[in-house]
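Figure S4 source data
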Amino acid sequence: MVDGILGFVMVLAIVIVSTKLCGLLFRRLHLPQVLGYIIAGVLIGPALFGMGGFSLIGFQSEADSVSCLVMLDEFTLNDGSTYTILDVFSKIGVILIMFCAGLETDLEELKKTGLISMFVAIAGVSVPLVLGLCVSLPFMGSGLVDGSFTTVVQGLFVGTILTATSVAITVSVLKELGKINTRIGTILVSAAIIDDVIGMVVLSVMTGLGTAGGGAQLSGFDWFKAQWWGTLIMIVAFFAVAIVVGIGLHYLFKWMDKKWPSTHRLALFGLATCFVYAFVAEEVFGVADITGAYFAGVIISTVNRVATYADKKADVSSYMIFGPVFFASIGMTMSFDGLSGWLVLFSALFVLAGLVGKIAGCGAVIKLSGGTWREAGIAGVGMMARGEVALIVTTKGIEAGIIPESFMIMTVMLILVSSILTPIFLKLLFADHREPHDDEPSKYRGHEIEVRPPESGDGAQSDQPHSSEVNENGHS
């Protein structure tokens, strides 16, 4: 058995190879590579084969019950929590993923699509959020799913997981069918971007409320942040400070781009901005660190050339090491010990709420705006797929102690089911679908979108899962 520093180097080798192989397999099955990464973590960690007494990678706490090739040492913090070096790499991975997602946010595109995309995104967040709470209510306090699942805030967090949208599969199908630049295609892509922004705000609020109220032994500023009203004040303060500082950073990066165009220092300063925003967001304001990282990316995205260059450089680190480690760690730390019939039932209702919520919410907006039933169905199904942002939100809830670890199984089921059904339904709905000619008035009141000739595309995906695939998968 190997452990220590060289043992972790061996862990990285196993993770990189296994995630790549499983990712390629899932891509051939026309499923998101991130699902392959998670399955790789299940296979190499103690989650599945550990029940038989053996795994490739094990944790120090399981040394007596599991025989493994490489053992990860665990360290204890002052607050009593434990972590491994894998957790550090995983944290960097999730921060980089959200930073790159922010870098690829096109604010100009949001302006072009008008109010209709905003309303589609709002409905795509609010309806699943409410349905998630409704599904959770019968199980609260029953002890059937998990004894700690008792509060309304936890139910709202379950709904928060459902708010994320992954546009990866949708974009692939739209490109394959030559519909990416049509009116409905533009609305879908723009709504998914806005959905991400709203989802990050909702996550910050839910995380803050879920950890608030525990300040009985605290004093001063820490006590203030622990109260629910203090949490809300700090969330508003974060966004106010982030915007003001972001305006200054916009001009700073613009000046740097003129003085040192396409140099490594731009990517380095951008990465440093990401880490500072992530740290300040969580440690100072109590907002989720991934919200800070995403916001940093959005700020830099306003300087196009810097954003493109920084994204290219940050994407290499995320794609090569940190991203695969994050997704594999989800599979490695997943546990099937608490799996029960009630949890399976809850998971099925959770998945159903996630699918119906997007179809009903987003589709209703398109229909009420003057679209056809077919276009309403396209909008709902196009926003239905989930990806890594749903995983990130779930992980955040588990880390904050808001929801139990067993709920990760529900999110994985949601991603798998929605990833399979979305391309099937989209292709059926787009069959014989025709866009209005240029001289026909738009069906959407008060919203004009240029209808350009469809681009040809085979929907091929790149080997890199972020700029072309992870970001799309994750525009959960």
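Figure S5 source data
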Amino acid sequence: MFHLRGERKLEVSEIYQIVRNKGLNVKEKYCYRILENPFYCGIITHGLLEENELIKGIHEPLVTEDLWLKVNDPNYCREYRKLESEYDHLALKGFLKCDKCGKNLTGYYKKVKDKYYYKCNTKGCRLNVSNVILDNKFNALLSHISIPE
């Protein structure tokens, strides 16, 4: 996957089709996660480490650091830049939970309406709310909070 991306400059959707055809049963979103994971170039990160702290692993890297950096350079591929900016309108992504079932809400863009939404993916839940509505409610809550110096 790294060589297809870094050397042949294939889009992740194309890489996904290639690995699926070779028998790797993986979702396309995991192709992104694999390509972004520094573990494959010998670097370890963990939530218990300080922010941005990296540790050189003792495992043998599968790709060189240069290739990993090339694949993850935001200037190298327009697809990564699109993914990073595509959901910038969803400031609460990763923080919201469905008030009916308690599952995390996901965000998506509705091209026809040119709007962003949060929704619950739980079958039968049907919660679907505009990001503008939730952002306004969140801002209203924040306006009542004061933090002492």
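Residues 16 and 22 are 10 Å apart (CA to CA). The helical segments are 2-6, 12-21, 28-36, 65-71, 78-86, 131-143.
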